[in-house]
Amino acid sequence: MNAIPPDLRDTVKKLHDVSIGDFRNPYAAIDWPEKMDRAQWFTSPRFISLNGTPAYEALTEEKRKELSFFEAVNFYSLNIHGERPLCKGIAERLYRPEHRDVSPYLHHFLAEENNHMIYFATFCEKYAGKIYPDRHLAFPRDFADGEEDFLFFAHTLIFEEIVEFYNVKMSKDPALEPTARAINLLHHRDEARHLVFGRKLTKHLFQAHAPQWTQEVLAGVRENLSNFILSTWREYYNPDVYRDAGLPSPHDLREEAWNDPACVAHRREVSAGLFKYLLENKMLEKEPPLQ
Amino acid sequence: MSEQDVKKQLRDWVASKSKAGKPVNDDTPLMEQRVITSMQVMDLILFIEKLSGRPVDAGKLKKGVFRDVNTIYENFFHA
Ligand SMILES: [Fe+2]
Ligand SMILES: [Fe+2]
Fold first, then answer.
1. How far is B58 from chain A (nearest CA, A)?
2. Which end of chain B has fewer beta carbons closer than 10 Å to its terminal beta carbon, N or C?
3. Residues of chain A with confidence (pLDDT) below 50
């Protein structure tokens, strides 16, 4: 199954050309202020993870802005923690026979993800003095033919679809602090291409491999995707953020926000496009729970 | 918190997350029997941090530290 469908081949060619024209020096892309005034919005208020909860309602605007800073540090940190294994996975797949035809684009993917980590890490280190820790742990296991490859690109797609929702909205929010806005915009420019590629490649891999999987493997893959979506969302609620913003009982706050109907509705809104794609392509049979 | 209290809290937490709904003892293999999945480890780490009041460095964790409730207690709560 080394041949890729013609439309994926065309996509790779187009994305490769566009990426060359949009290639940038990550060190010159952003003007980093020497000092950062934290009394600004770094995350659009409606995207602050606690928004909608009684705890958030009780905060002053000053406190909400402070919280928006640490929310941004969390958003950038979780991007870094997603992009590190992503780079590793792409590097491992470069020029494997089954990925030879998409390798010209994988080079862009890899280079761009490395650039993203530079933007995200520079902000975190320069203005917060830290990146929030990664709490991921993967256990080695066995896979059916094509299963690991499919899951790698499907996880990447899930992660990027959710991030992209925020990037698009926040790159256009005039109330956002300019550096934060620039990071969201630069990320969005590359990610828009990653998503076009990811949607096509993930679909191709599923169509090529799923018919050979047993019912048990297929059910396991679907359960894995549901679990991954849930755990990706869980990371958006980080007690370290609430603690740094000076809020009491950060762990309880996390559970309150997670269970708050307004927050559940928000997760559903952000996930809608992703769910549509996964359901239409039979990668999922039903909408996964978001709670 | 006493050892018994910590272990009970851990058992209750695992039972509440487990889809299988099987009873959880202090020596029930958590990962091996997929009582909890690798994707729930982040939540488990956060719960351990909450209970112990100390941060966990996930990058330095050795294999098997989450094998069962007894092992978790030994690794994260035993002074
Ligand atoms: Fe990225
Ligand atoms: Fe990306």
1. 5
2. C
3. none
Residue A244: both structure tokens together: 């740094």
Total number of domains in chain A: 1
Tens of pLDDT, residue by residue over A178-233, are 999 999 999 999 999 999 999 999 999 999 999 999 999 999 999 999 999 999 99
CATH classification of the domain holding A276: 1.10.620.20
Single-letter residue type at A167: N
Q: How far is A8 from chain B (nearest CA, A)?
A: 31
Q: Among A152, A164, A162, A275, which residue's Cα sits nearest to residue A206?
A: A152
Give CATH for domain B3-76. 1.10.1200
Contact at 8 Å (CB) between A180 and A32? no
Residue A195 or residue B59, greater confidence: A195
What is the domain extent for residue A223? 6-19+60-131+146-280
β-bridge partners, A176: A41
pLDDT at B79: 67
Backbone angles phi, psi at A41, to 5 degrees: -90, 125
